[in-house]
Specification:
alpha/beta; Rossmann fold; six-stranded parallel sheet; 41% helix; 17% strand
């Protein structure tokens, strides 16, 4: 007996539900009709947030994943829809974010035919392979369960990067019997066994080090408690990359930034690097053998790049740090406090860099002072974004979202919306510039439609400020393609029914952010600014060791 109410598309939705997906970001279209019909039947279980652009849908899935640590899911049509997601997927790939990119496909029999069917592109999965960890094709309704099962296993194991799954429109439309297409029940992820010998060797190095240091990247999440315990036992500073801000409360004396790390690199004798590519110390600062390197990474390939370490431990940060702490508690007595030393160094560094970069420091302080400790911040690629790498205090894990090495201008606003959907009880603040905001300003509509209460702070200098400063300083003020003609951002927001305000000072910004927190609904704040000083000499740190 065939149940004509159940289709391949509804089976995909059932698989999402089985794997714990509660939100889908997407845009409907012909090849997705039966999947959206399946979503209609599951509105009690899965919320659908439709955006105004496919890129924004996938950025929202990215923001959801980064803020929560859970899988973010996007759903777009094939061809043009998929290509519109590529910038967002490349950002998620760079940031190791678990994003499930679901897409339709043209009818099965026509794939690869080059006939010019609606939304046809050659080799869609090959295109997606450049920005995803794994790609799946659902060739029949009985493959829905197995393909979706594999997709979620890929999302939850090893290096957590985006995966893509496509389903042809005829398979999505095909009626199926009850139970058809169901896969095995989702299984808990089994962690690989750890190398006890490597953990023991690492613990010995750390226990005997005179000046140990800990470096953490975006792979640290889940290990915050063990990280704090290890750092305090060793009295070792924790240097956080931009992706790890908040792994240790910035108010802790041992919580330090990468600028301080560069300053003290010459004195470090053992470096423990957890969930980070560790490129700056190994490539830029130099490592001539005087520093013993311990790498902890869930990806065995990444753990060996860009050069071999003295000790390599392959495994998740939470498991490895927990095991390492247990060994250190047996072998290393708590050290005499060095907190005063690190408190003084932090204060001196913050003053030095802050004095060089005004008004970036005062504006970031204004925002930070106006919001609760658990606020989530999404920095678009702008002058305050660069300053945030070493000058923005984060107090909670997963509270600062960055675009990673892609540096995707314009990613920020939809990403912040996705973060707010994931964390509805936490304030979320988007910090961007006039150039980047216009990439996805249409999502003001999405924010209002779904009541996604993000506070958007837009710094308006009338230019692609970074480009314009480079043209001034390096090319004799030969300006080209860096000036912008902007709308009135306050009136633009108000045209969508959004509350909007304007200021031109840090004091005014702090006041308006506090006011925004008291309002129901999303808010936009425009900040008129002049060109800001160049942060790059402070970001590209100096070489310390010759090799």
């Amino acid at each position: 007996m065939v149940d004509h109410q159940r289709t391949g598309g509804s089976a995909v939705v059932g698989a999402l539900k089985d794997h714990g997906v509660t939100t889908v970001f997407g845009l409907p279209g012909l090849q997705l009709d039966y999947i959206f019909d399946g979503l209609y039947r599951e509105t009690d279980s899965i919320r659908v947030v439709h955006t105004r652009h496919e890129q924004a849908a996938t950025y929202m899935a990215f923001g959801y994943a980064q803020a929560s640590g859970e899988v973010g899911t996007s759903l777009v049509v094939p061809g043009a829809g998929v290509l519109n997601t590529m910038a967002a997927l490349s950002t998620a790939y760079a940031c190791n974010a678990p994003v499930l990119a679901l897409t339709g496909q043209i009818p099965s029999a026509l794939i690869g035919g080059g006939l010019g069917v609606l939304h046809e592109i050659p080799n869609q999965l090959t295109a997606l392979a450049s920005v995803t960890k794994w790609q799946g094709h659902i060739a029949s309704t009985d493959q829905v369960g197995p393909v979706m099962q594999e997709a979620f296993e890929q999302l939850q194991t090893g290096r957590r990067r985006p995966v893509a799954v496509e389903i042809p429109m005829d398979i999505a439309a095909q009626p199926i019997a009850p139970g058809t297409g169901a896969g095995a029940a989702p299984q808990p992820v089994q962690a690989a066994a750890l190398d006890d010998d490597a953990i023991s060797a690492a613990a010995d190095l750390l226990a005997n080090a005179a000046n140990p240091a800990i470096f953490v990247g975006g792979g640290i999440w889940g290990a915050e408690k063990a990280l704090l315990a290890i750092a305090e036992r060793l009295q070792a500073p924790v240097f956080m990359t931009p992706h790890a801000l908040g792994a240790m409360d910035a108010r802790h004396p041992l919580a330090q930034n990468m600028q301080v790390a560069n300053d003290v690199w010459r004195t470090v004798d053992v470096a423990l690097a957890i969930g980070t590519r560790f490129l700056h110390p190994l490539l830029d600062w130099g490592c001539d053998g005087s520093v013993k390197i311990i790498r902890v990474d869930i990806d065995p390939v990444q753990a060996a790049l860009p050069k071999a370490s003295d000790v390599t431990i392959v495994g998740g940060a939470e498991a490895v740090t927990g095991a390492m702490l247990a060994v250190l508690e047996q072998r290393a007595a708590p050290r005499e406090s060095r907190l005063e030393i690190w408190t003084e160094r932090k204060a001196a560094t913050e003053k030095h860099y802050g004095d060089l970069l005004q008004p970036q420091r005062d504006y970031t302080r204004a925002i930070r002072s106006a919001v609760p400790d658990d606020t989530v911040f999404c920095f678009d690629v702008t002058q305050l974004h660069f300053y945030s790498w070493f000058g923005f205090p984060a107090y909670r894990p997963r509270s600062v979202i960055q675009p990673g090495y892609q540096g995707t201008l314009g990613y920020g606003y939809p990403t912040a919306l996705g973060a707010k959907v994931a964390m509805p009880d936490k304030p979320v603040v988007y910090i961007g510039g006039d150039g980047g905001f216009m990439f996805n300003c249409q999502e003001l509509s999405t924010a209002m439609h779904f009541g996604i209460d993000v506070i958007a702070v837009i710094f308006n200098d009338g230019a692609f400020g970074n480009v314009r400063r480079i043209q001034k300083e390096q090319f004799g003020a030969r300006y080209i393609s860096s000036d912008l003609h902007n709308p009135d951002f306050v009136r633009l927001a108000e045209s969508f029914g959004m509350a909007a305000m304007r200021t031109d000072s840090p004091e005014g910004l702090a006041r308006l952010v506090r006011e925004a927190l008291t309002r129901d609904g999303p808010v936009l704040i425009e900040v008129n600014v002049s060109p800001m000083p160049n942060p790059h000499p402070l970001m590209f740190t100096r070489r310390v060791h010759p090799a």
